[in-house]
Amino acid sequence: MWGFTGILGKLIHLEASVIVWYRVIIAFLALGVYMSIKGGGFKVSSRKKLLQILVVGIFVGAHWLTFYQSIQLSTASLGILCLSTTTLHVSWLEPLVMKKKFSKLEMFLSIVVVIGIYIATDNFSPQEYEALGYGLVSAFFAALFAVSNTKLVETESASIISFYELVAASITLTFVLFFNGQLNFDLLVMTGEDFFWLLFLALACTSFAFIATIIVMEKLGTFTVSLSINLEPIYTLILAVFILHENEVLNSRFYFGAVIIVLTVLADTIIKNISNKREKSKPSFNSKHVK
Length: 291
Fold this sequence. Notes:
- It is built from twelve helices and no strands.
- It has helices spanning 2-11, 16-38, 47-73, 76-83, 86-97, 104-120, 126-152, 158-179, 192-220, 222-230, 232-243, 252-281.
């Protein structure tokens, strides 16, 4: 479902800000209905935490807005490729936010991703470079809210975090539309096809994908789910070839760079899993037995 989001940026013939506005509003309403039926309430542990979640929600809105802007200026393939640089930002954001030790390996892999981007974006037009800029900014916001959520989920449930983040993103996008003079009845003017794809984006690719991820993670574990999510660029690139025929407008250098980036992201996930298993397998010693 997440791999399909980039494709929808091309299939929906609306401006990026309008697409994201509809997406977050429909998604948070659907998630709210799900949470009401499931039970558990909407209470956050403190006002401070609620404020932090709302701020992260602004990052979510900014991420999706720049992501779709990148896709509409160029291709779905470029947009999702830029999103792969999220790991570059995570490598330096995590030590700051989570107080984790800086990883030289992560920084090295991030540099490899940058090399892949350089190869893929050779001989771009000015408009495609603008799309590249939006895509890289989108990756930064993606890393920012991903790292922030890792911190927030220590005290709050994933469903509550996502609900209030979507609320904040909805409010943020409403202000964006207002200041751009787009908050009017023209927002309701769209084709039946666009309306269908918007519902699919908000319900299937956002609300359902989120709920399904939680259920699957409980059954299969974090690593399997993380690996699946990191395969998103592959899904998007394949879908872009068959649905949008982007292979006709992208050269071999682009796909060579894409392969480098995707393999690097998968290698990062696998290396982390091996490292985590080694840490867990180490024997623990009780200090009272140490002379």
